[in-house]
Every structure is written in C-alpha cells, then in structure tokens.
Design brief:
160 residues, elongated, 53% helix, 3 strands, 17% strand, alpha+beta
Length: 160
C-alpha cells in the first residue's frame, strides 16, 4: 500500500502575526487617508474665519497701542508737573521753568502756574497722540497732571 500524504497547506502564521499585519495595514490606510485632500463642503472655512476675525484683532491692537501712548503721555505730564513745582518752589522764574519743561512734554503741552497762600501749583496739560490723528484729523486724548508744593522762598521770608 502506498501511502499518500497530503501536502501541507502554506501556513498563514499564528494569530499574533495576523493581528500585527492587520494593524500595519490599518496604519497605512490612516496615513493614506490623511494625506488625501479634504473633499468636504467646509474646505476654506479657516480662511474665511481668519478673514472675518483679522480686522477685529487689528482694531483691538491699535486701540491698545493708543491706550499705552496715552498712559505714557500722562506719566510724562505728571513727572514734568512735579519737576516744575519743585523748581518754582525753590524760587526759579516761571519763564526759565517753561523753557526747560515744555520741550520734554508731549505735543501741544502747556504749563500753568498758580501761587497762593504759600503754595505753588503747576499744571501741565497736553494732547496724547492717537494713531491716525493726522490722517483722519481726529483730536488727541487730553491728558494732564497737577502738582503742589510749599513756596520755599515765601516761607523763608516769614518770621517765625
């Protein structure tokens, strides 16, 4: 009797090998799917949203720049008012103080001095520049500061 042996079928491997192959195949399909351009109806939506939001962001940025400029002008006015009142309290003339202070002040600045009852008061007012004021002929923001000190010259003259 001859014995016939059945030819062994090619092995597909264990279940472990099959799961590995299927994971690789699914990973390749995910990569291929993401590399394809989107063909949905919302293509270009991000561009449209950016185009509508960008002017608002630019306007907000310009407004913040204007606020920072106004705060800077306010601080300069405060510093110059203090410097002016100290010089005036020591006895310097109003003209010399104006010549020294106003070139450092913001645009369209003025210095007002008042002396009364042993006190000297200096008020510096100016216009803070706003973006577009020259192009659109908009008024700037008015800023100002006041400082008061004892008039040392007058105090020195008074007998105690």
């Amino acid at each position: 009797m001859t014995r016939t042996t059945a030819s062994p079928q090619p092995s597909r491997g264990s279940s472990r090998d099959r799961s590995r192959r299927s994971r690789r195949a699914s990973a390749r399909s995910v990569v291929r799917a993401s590399a394809r351009p989107a063909r949905h109806g919302d293509a270009g939506m991000v561009s449209a949203e950016i185009a509508t939001a960008l002017p608002g962001v630019v306007a907000l940025t310009l407004a913040l720049v204007c606020v920072v400029a106004a705060v800077g002008a306010q601080l300069r006015c405060q510093d110059l008012a203090r410097e002016s009142v100290r010089a005036l309290a020591r006895g310097e003339s109003t003209g010399s103080v104006r010549e020294r202070v106003l070139p450092q002040a913001p645009p369209h600045a003025s210095l007002r001095v008042r002396r009364s009852s042993g006190l000297v008061t200096a008020t510096v007012t100016a216009t803070a520049p706003v973006l577009g004021t020259s192009l659109l002929r908009l008024p700037g923001l008015p800023v100002g500061a006041t400082a008061t000190a004892a008039d040392e010259k007058r105090l020195a003259e008074q007998p105690w």
